[in-house]
Design a protein that fits this description.
The complex is a heterodimer of chains A (about 800) and B (about 170).
Chain A lengths: L17 H5 L15 E7 L5 E7 L1 H4 L4 E6 H7 L21 E2 L5 E7 L2 H8 L3 E6 L6 H4 L15 E9 L2 H7 L2 E9 L11 E7 L4 E6 L6 H8 L7 E3 L15 H14 L3 E4 L2 H7 L7 E9 L5 E13 L24 E10 L13 H19 L3 H8 L8 E2 L5 E2 L4 H11 L2 H13 L3 E13 L5 H5 L10 E7 L5 E5 L8 H13 L7 E4 L16 H28 L6 E4 L2 E4 L2 E6 L1 H10 L13 E6 L19 E13 L6 E11 L6 H20 L31 E5 L21 H14 L12 H20 L1
Parallel strand pairs in A: 1-12, 10-11, 14-15, 20-21, 27-28
Antiparallel strand pairs in A: 1-5, 2-4, 2-6, 3-5, 7-15, 8-13, 9-10, 9-12, 13-14, 16-17, 18-26, 19-20, 19-25, 22-23, 23-24, 26-27
Helix pairs in contact in A: 7-8, 10-19, 15-16, 18-19
Chain B lengths: L1 H5 L9 E7 L2 E7 L5 H8 L18 E4 L2 E4 L12 E3 L13 H8 L9 H14 L5 H8 L10 H15 L1
Parallel strand pairs in B: 1-5
Antiparallel strand pairs in B: 1-2, 3-4, 3-5
Helix pairs in contact in B: 3-6
Classes of the chains: A alpha+beta (about 800), B alpha+beta (about 170).
Chain lengths: ~800, ~170
Amino acid sequence: MSPATFRYIGKHRRAVEHKRFVVGKGRYAADIQLPGMLHIALVASPYASAEIKRIDASEALAMPGVHAVLTGEELCRHIDAMLPGVDAPQVTRYPLASDVTRYAGEWVAAVVADSRALAEDAAECVHVDYAPLPCVVDPQQALEPHSTLVHPAHGSNVIFHRKFVWGPVEEDFAKCDHQLSYQVRWARNATVPIETFAVACQWQDSTGILDVWASIQMPKFPDQVAKALRLPGNAVRVHFDVDVGGSYGVKRGLKHAVLVGYLAQKLGRPVRLVEDRLENMRGGDMQGPDRVFDVTLGFQKNGEIKAMKMRAVDDIGAYSGRSPLQLGKPVGAIVGPYRIQSVEYDAMAVMTNKTPQEAVRGFGQAPTNYAIETGIDKIARFLHMDRIALRRINLIGKDEFPYLIPSGTHYDSGDYDTVMTKALDTAAFDDLLKERDQLRSQGLLAGIGISTCLEPSGGNSSFEPLFNPKNKTTTWMDSCLVRVDLSGAVTALMGTSTSGQAHETMVSTVIGEVLQIEPDGIRVLHADSLNALPSNSPVGSRMAIMLGGAAAGAAKKIKHKLLQIAAHNLGVAVEALVYEDGQVQATHNPSLKLSWDALVEIAHRHFHKLPEGMEPGLQEKFVWEVPTGGMLPTDDGRVQMYPCHSFESHVVLASIDPDTCKVTVRKYVCGHDCGVMISPDVVHGMTYGGIAHGLGAALMEKFAFSTEGQLLSGTFMDYLLPTSAEVPAITIVDHCTPSPLTEFGQKGSGEAGYLGSPAAIASAVNDALSTQGAHIDHLPMTPQAIWTALSEARSVKASNTVN
Amino acid sequence: MTQSTMTSTHTPIEKKSIQIQVNGVIQQRHVEPRTSLVDFLRDELGLTGTHVGCEHGVCGACTVMLNDEPVRACCMFAVQADEMRVTTVEGLAPERGVMTQIQDAFCEKHALQCGYCTPGMLMACHALVAHNPQPTEAQVRDAISSNICRCTGYQQIVDAVMYATQAQKA
């Protein structure tokens, strides 16, 4: 099928999910009310590092309506530790601390009562004696030889370290005219959904099933909950039909679900935990990458970039989940969209006494893109070359695909130069330059930012074996089941929850396309984990590719079965039949036909009319392996990471008030190519949202910690989220380079916008500051950071004048 | 609700009797004075369309109409709403199965993704349009700056309000 011939794909269609949300009938985890349900409040450690000497819960337990106070000491005896993601068996993690606490805000005890308010009252009456211990908060200090250890049993604060060398790096550097080194820092921020994490659990002695309703976006979540609770997998039923109030990566909630599941089992009553905002910010374990990059680029005087060395040190906080792997995913796009031929990548994850890190939109790619793009701007400045011209020289050409990058990943397709040109044209770049200069003449600092970034998509888990040789995972499948009932109506079943990506809309659009029937009549349900086919949750910009591919695969099997039934009953070979609008007719004799209803009737009722050996009924499943997946990494760490590669080019005009140092983003254009868009409204929506996230990362958002390890930005008064006053009107300009690897040519887009906007906004701020001889190489570029940079530039200028 | 009947034995806090008209229906309840309006709506009345986001008045997810003005239901107590009228997202549309023009425009323009901020955002938009039936884009951006959305970047929310109000004009 070519894009022009699609019937439903790529067309405007109202998302089927919206109707329940706009009338207040969404069903989120915090909306789950179960008869006799109990509520949890948490006792959190006030210290970043302390020994727990004694917990006295007697006063709390004596309060009427209080059912239990659970401590880590009890919990750890009855459950297994959660896995650290890399090979570090001594870095154990449980929902509650026992013996010692390793970050301020870590949960020490859980109080269960008839209401949340009562549980909070009782939590204040749990007395914990702590003996404070030394802590390490700065990741560089954590790397020093005699540093305090976060996990002494592990023997080091480094939980993962590997230096990859792909290609003749040193030789390439030796041949370069120039090299340029710089350091950039990506601050700890996160996607911070407006819904905090919530989970309700119910255990039935009679069935031996633990029911879980949770606001999750977590691969292998049911298996991991079962494993930690020492239950067989078929004893945990996770209900994927819970609406999730935003995630963008962070809604993992394994420790939450294990804690609540244990309590539900122990007490024989339904139990619910809904994080309050402080619990979420401090102890919800959802803070994102916190990364220092040291980069050296080797390039020729004409601007050609030949080689790169990148050292990335990521502060993952006090415990490990999937966070070290966020250094792994960028391996699949380590050179960005550029023809860099050899790379040394030194990746290190270090532990500190801070809130643990979790997956955030892009899984480490946005910080990496920011580090690469900063270098492109620096080379341009160094060579006195236009940033756009420099990019044109280095961008991989549209005729070079599939393009193999040094780290072993093939990029599937793209036309980067055209997308950048479209974005520049849409922004009317020459006028934009004039506008910038006009703003400057008005006394403002003004700058234009550019970025050209990749969005790897189709989420595979190749970083798991890459970062842990004991882990041989080579599949990251997703699935769909399509059923046509006796009335002829179509129902599809997917096996994960949704957190705003409109999967019901996507799946019904795809099935409608394949079966040539109206998508609005197709119902899409979220299975529970005991009914679901194997699936891996909507991470890594994968669902358009993976769930879309699975839905198409199942629908095609339905279509094939209908053709076989028709062939058998019409006495015509399948090859001589045509399927159209749900009915089948003979190509050369249109009077020979069977309607949708007639075919469905045969499948469901007329076994005697079915071809020999065919199963009755009309139901097909399709389990799809990630295209290009299935391979283990090579010994030197080369691997096909994700299959598809979307591309985005951002053009930004920003100004800075020289008195307040506040940044105003005035114009924003994003050129975007994610192949064929199944639902353009959804793709655009995610791209707008991703850009807003990126604006927050670039200018506003930071989980700041004191030197004692106390979180200083635990509320929305000090962890600042962009509002409509900060996010400008955004223009998206689409381009379509279909992927050769997917059903309809689609690529992923769930991380769109976020992967390029921090770099572009930072580029604009630095262009503005350049007139004052100032620059900033860390995010967020807050008014304080800008004020400091300008003051430093002024004092340098002054001392130069004096000298 | 289940929860409040379960708690009848424990609390030494004296409950107050309140009467609030919620979505056109008079609701009489005995509540602890410390019960926030949003907890009252969600836990006592089962109106879970109103959401809790930050619990300190910044994000606007809990916004409801109090006597036709938008308020943060997390930052006021239920007893403060005694003898007042409250409208929640469940009561925005005039009747079952019908949507307001703004609700309809939110669907048409994809002004939401996860839907969590949507009820509060709808309140902000309805409050704007009640005072200013044909706002400019800048006025819409100003009005919804009271509410945080992490999904949309606000673009399609602005588009939806413009669509709804311009359709009204036509």
